[in-house]
Amino acid sequence: MTKTPDIAPELAATTAARSPVDPEVAARLRLVLNRLARRLRSQAAGDLSPSLVSALVSIECHGPITLGQLAAHELVKPPSVTRLVAALEERGLVRRETDAADRRIARVSLTGEGRRRLCRTRTRKTAYLAKRLRRLDEPELAVVREALPVLEGLLEDDR
Fold first, then answer.
1. 10-residue block means of pLDDT along the chain (159 residues)?
2. pTM (whole model) above 0.70
3. Start-to-end C-alpha separation, the chain
4. Domain-by-domain residue ranges, the chain?
5. Fold for domain 50-117?
6. Which positions ≥6 away from 54 have C-beta within 8 Å?
């Protein structure tokens, strides 16, 4: 069994008051998810930082999108999103177009290369996970399958 770092006593008390979940479960889950996320980030194609990949995904999902909307989705300040978009434009992954109705507004969308780069990144990350999942026997894989809806449900409040 993996030893997890101690959690603050006040967190343990708060968690215990709201639900019967052992605080160690939350600590272990956090540790596993952070490590998995770090390993998946390392599979990103080429010279794209996690921030750049995240911005590309937001642009793909919500684009064409204004810089202000992108800043809100990425939870960053407008100057930061301006730098992100400039870096993506420099790599040819996004294009910035002036809004026809209001020339003060610029909208950002993916280029073909931006879509291909996201596809490669996703393919690499999926292959990484698939390789590890192949190590599991059928009962272990069934546990993972059954846990997916529960884990997805943990994100529901964040949408």
1. 51 54 91 94 82 95 94 95 96 94 92 95 94 97 96 79
2. yes
3. 33
4. 50-117
5. Arc Repressor Mutant, subunit A (1.10.10)
6. 74
